[in-house]
Amino acid sequence: MKVLFNGVNTEQFKPDPAAAACERREIGLDRRVVLYVGRVCNQKGSDVLLEAIKTLNERRSDLQLVIAGPIGQFGTKADPDRWVERIKGVGGVYLGAVEESRLAAIYNLADVFVMPTRIAEMFGMAAVEAQACGKPVVASDCGGLQEVVPTNCGGRFPVGNAVKLASEIERLMDDANYRTSCSANALRNAAQYDWNFICNTLDGLYNTII
Fold first, then answer.
1. Structural domains of the chain in order of their starting residue, each with its CATH number
2. Three-state DSSP class for 140?
């Protein structure tokens, strides 16, 4: 059996320090950034991330949470104002849903990317896109994230455990050598999800069958 994964456009999602610097200036970021991209809801673990940031804020002042994505869960009504209030309550910046053309730059402004999904994470595209931009990823032990985010690409934590999430973020922020190593591993890991690689692999499978 051969498994072919979803693909990522590594021409779009790649390291881009200049774009990152531009976004940081426009948004007004002057601290190290913990980034989340995706739907803002409990299913995606947004509440776990906010609790982890609250914990980190109690012992340090050098981190900035940035969240990009729509508020809501599979058509379920949510209270956007309440979520924005909670994000701002931990000193976070909420960008809303960003345009596709801007998305790669948003990934690039991060120091650490977080994907804290609680349930039903089948793949984890945002985690792969972040890795393709060379960002270490901290992900929950949920569904497909266990496969697409190896521990040497950042870290993983038990689903719903905000204390462990905070520890994994802090470990990456405080150990520059480890963070650099995870970034390099993330880039290598993302390469296997490149659309060209996947299409070539599929082409080879077809030729073998024929």
1. 17-209 (3.40.50.2000)
2. strand
Alpha-carbon gap, residue 169 to 149, rounded angstroms: 15
Q: In the numeric block, which tokens belong to residue 155?
A: 């870290």
| pTM, entire model | 0.93
Going by C-alpha positions, the residue among 73, 14, 68, 77 that lies closest to residue 37 is: 68
Whether residue 137 contacts residue 107, with contact meaning beta carbons closer than 8 Å, is answered with: no
DSSP assignment of 175-209, as one string? -HHHHHHHHHHHHHHHHTTBHHHHHHHHHHHHHHH
Tell me the three state secondary structure of residue 144.
coil
User: pLDDT digit string (tens) for 98-130?
Assistant: 999 999 999 999 999 999 999 989 899 999 999
Element (H, E) at 154: strand 154-157
Angle of CA points 67, 68, 69, to nearest 5°: 125
- Write the pLDDT tens digit of every residue in 28-85: 999 999 999 999 999 999 999 999 999 999 999 999 999 999 998 665 667 899 999 9
